[in-house]
Amino acid sequence: MIQGNGSLILLACALACSRPNAEQNNTQTQTASADTAVVTQADSTRPSEKGEWTAGVTSASARASGNVVLTGVRTAQHPDFERLTFEFAGDTLPAWHIEYIDKPVRSCGSGEEKTLEGEAWLEVRFTGAEAHDQSGKPTAAPMNRSVGQPIIRQLVLTCDFEADVTWVAGVSTPARYKVMQLKGPARLVIDLKGR
């Protein structure tokens, strides 16, 4: 136990150490701004340095408390990879699960078989999500699109039922992929590696 002047020194240190000075605040602001820039850039240029390339199964639990609406599905082609982006209303993602699946690819409601271009099928399934508005109109149309890129050949919505939304990408080969979760708005970004 420290007594006398030692107690005052400890108290002064505790107060000084718990309050960051103006220089520390500026550093934190600059770091936050840099992170925001990286997030913005990550959706339009190169893949994130975070995460690992895989051809296995990846998933994450829900961040949203209720169902979130899928507002867009985009693809982009870059020199070393191709990007598949799922964008949602708001700033939180639903639970998601990604894996390569075997044929036949089927619609979740009818069981109807779907024919997709490519030699492999990457399924992206969201739980706690919807791909339609309150009147039932699709929010991420078209639901069957020919992409025609070297890796991503076609995209098909195979399920939008009871808070489950599933898209399947017909790809030229079971390419390794990397996943990023971005905010402002919420996006799940999948980069598929070129050869």
Characterize the largest beta sheet: strand count, sense, and whether it forms a barrel: 6 strands, antiparallel
Estimated structural class:
alpha+beta
What is the 3D form?
A: globular
- Per DSSP, the total helix count is 2
Largest beta sheet: strand ordering: 1-4-7-11-10-9
* CATH fold group of the largest domain: Immunoglobulin-like
Low-confidence stretches: 1-49
Q: What's the assembly state of these chains? A: single chain
CATH class of the largest domain: Mainly Beta
Please provide the count of β strands. 13
Describe this structure in words.
This protein is an alpha+beta fold. It has 2 domains: 38 residues, no CATH class; 136 residues, Immunoglobulin-like. The protein contains 2 helices and 13 strands. The strands form 3 sheets. Strands 1-4-7-11-10-9 form a 6-stranded antiparallel beta sheet, with no helix packed on it. The radius of gyration is 23 Å and the shape is globular. The termini are far apart. 26% of the residues are buried. The N terminus is likely disordered.
Fold topology:
Layout (H helix, E strand, L loop, with lengths): L4 H14 L3 H21 L15 E3 L7 E10 L3 E8 L6 E7 L3 E2 L6 E2 L5 E8 L1 E2 L13 E3 L5 E10 L2 E8 L5 E6 L4 E7 L2
Parallel strand pairs: 2-8
Antiparallel strand pairs: 1-4, 2-3, 3-13, 4-7, 5-6, 7-11, 9-10, 10-11, 12-13
State the gist of this model.
This protein is of the alpha+beta class and 195 residues long. The protein is built from two helices and 13 strands; from the N terminus they run ααβββββββββββββ.
